[in-house]
Every structure is written in structure tokens, then in C-alpha cells.
Amino acid sequence: ERPFYPRWHRTKLALLWLSLIVSAVIFGMGITIGMFNAPYYMDGDGPGPAEIELSTSGSAAGLAVVVTTCEFLKTLLSRRREGLHPGALVAFHLIIWLLALVATVSAAIYDTDSYFWYDYPRADRSALQSQSQIYQQVLLGFDCTLLAIHLILFVGACVETNRLEKARKKVVIVRVPVPVAGAYPGGPHPAFDPRRSFVPPPGWQPGQYPVPLTTKIPQHADGGTGP
């Protein structure tokens, strides 16, 4: 049975809700920047920094939405309000964190002039920069927020996995007394009492080696004793 920690459970749910909100904002910023970029797009232009930035941010946010939705559904359908297995969450949050890290780095590098890589006229690049710079800065801020959220969730999933492994290795030994026939009061035979196990022969003194009651001294036919 998986150990349950109410405080961490509430913290995790709050972070997952925050991850959903941040992912929605990232999608909105990506769509807005794409709308600014679309009128200036030229045929034959390959993917540039802006497309890389939007694709990595969208991938991180999309995977975060999928994992968070699965976590909420599993929690609601579970009788003990348990989410996904912490071992699986370690992998998911690590992937989301890596994608968010790439998105954050690319946004930080190309935020100053994301369009100098393109063959746009300089006037078009300046117009794009002035129109979309604020949205790129907002996108960068929410990429950093998503990065921090899933770093915390990743560390929490690692700790939860470690606790689960320790709980499985822990062995509980329960000693149950088993009554033996004839060895308890009221049974077919009297209960064993060490004080009654030896009946001293007549003339026995304390400190004297006891002689078993079943021992007999052999006698000869003529009445003598000895071997």
C-alpha cells in the first residue's frame, strides 16, 4: 500500500493547477506571437529562433497539460485519492522540465531581436520587434515559471518514489501464540510445570544428584547386585 502524505498531496495539487494556468498562458502568448509573425512570413524561410522558441514552449506546455489532466483523473477515480505512480511522474516531470529549460534559454537569447535571422526587410523586423517584444517577455516569464513548477514536482516525485520503495522493503513480524494440545489448562492433559517435572526419591537431600525414578539396580538370581 502506497504511503499517503496529506501535506504533500495538497501542495502537489496546487502546483498542478498552477501548471495548467501557466500552460494556458504560454499557448496564448505563442498564438499571439504567431499572429504577429504571419503577415511577414515569406515562402522558403526555414525555422528560425522564433519558431524554435514557440515550438519548445508549446511542447513543454502541451505535455504539462496532458500529464496534469491524467493526474487529476487518476486522483478522482482512485478510492484512496492516489494519482499516477511516482516513478512515472519522475520521468514526465523531468521531460517537461528539460523542454521548459530549452524554451527558457532560447527565449532569453533571442528575445532582444528574434527576427534578425530572417530575410525580412529591416523595417519589417523593426515593426515585428516593437509589436511582439512585450509578448515575448511575457512568454519568457511564464517559461521560467513552468520550469520552476516542474522542478519542484520532479523533486517531490523522487522523494515519494524513495519513500514508496522503503515502505515495500519494510517487513513486519507478528508473533501469534499457537496453543499446543495438552499444554494449556482445561486440556486433555495437565499443563506443563517445570516444578513438577522431577519427583525426588525417598531420602533425597538438596544438592544431591537426582536418581531417575525409572532406574533399577540389576539383581542376580542369588539375590546379589552388580553387573
List the helices and strands and how they pair.
Elements (H helix, E strand, L loop, with lengths): L5 H32 L11 H29 L8 H25 L11 H48 L58
Keywords: Membrane, Transmembrane, Transmembrane helix
Brief summary of the model shown:
The chain crosses the membrane at residues 12-36, 56-77, 89-110, 134-159. It contains four helices and no strands. It has helices at residues 6-37, 49-77, 86-110, 122-169.
List keywords for this structure.
59% helix; 227 residues; membrane; 4 helices; transmembrane helix; 0% strand; mainly alpha; rod-shaped
Task: Describe this entry's structure for a reader.
Keywords: Membrane, Transmembrane, Transmembrane helix. The protein is mainly α. It has a domain at 6-39 and 49-168. It has 4 helices and no strands. The chain has helices spanning 6-37, 49-77, 86-110, 122-169. Helix 1 runs antiparallel to helix 2 (49-77) and helix 3 (86-110) packs antiparallel against helix 4. The model has no long low-confidence stretch (mean pLDDT 73).
